[in-house]
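Marked as duplicate of an earlier ticket. Keeping the data here for the record.
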Amino acid sequence: MIDRPTVLGYGENLPFKDNSFDFIIASHVLEHSAYPEKFINELQRVGKAGYIETPDAFMERINPYHDHRAEVYIDNKSLVINKKNRWCVDDNLLKLYNNKARNIIANDVIPSNPFIFHARLYWKNKIKFKILNPTINSDWASIDLHNISILDQTHFIKTAKKYTLILIRALFSQKKINSKIEIEKLLICTSCKSDKLLFAYRKIKCTACNSFYSYEQGLPNMTKPMHKISKLDAE
């Protein structure tokens, strides 16, 4: 993002203080997590309310992505999550879908009825969820497969969408407002959860546990501490 503060972190171990945000949007992120319960608990910890969107479990079953680790649907305002032990749960169904119905469903049905094919949940204070198979290991390595996507598009369409998005961002940018956000005041150490951080050029040090973090292209990289240090290296 070029018009708002950006921090690199893992959804299962967010680098922010409790209740840092009034509203959190997690759009097409949850299905990528191998530890959905940790991801959801972290959203509840750092946010007061929010919105979660994923592909619906039915769409994920017939049109799986090689880096999606869960099938999700909504039941009685609650997330229901089925962890995947591999990227494709049903090979025969996928083959039948691609041979018979993919063009019709992808080109006509889904674009006309996008909400039906996506799980969408607004939450406040508490996220209701249930994991159907918590013992399943979905922390498998993504394999280098062609992504079977409903978004097969011509080069012209992709280019047009790219520049349309750039124009929209320019017209509705909140860069001026967001520039006033002091993101450093919201950060915590992902190793010990302390907010005792020192910021210097190219380094962030936790004075509680002596871990430090680096910057990546100018962005705080809080994914994991590099190693323990005794003093801040302010190179």
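See parent ticket for discussion. The first strand starts at residue 24 and ends at 27.
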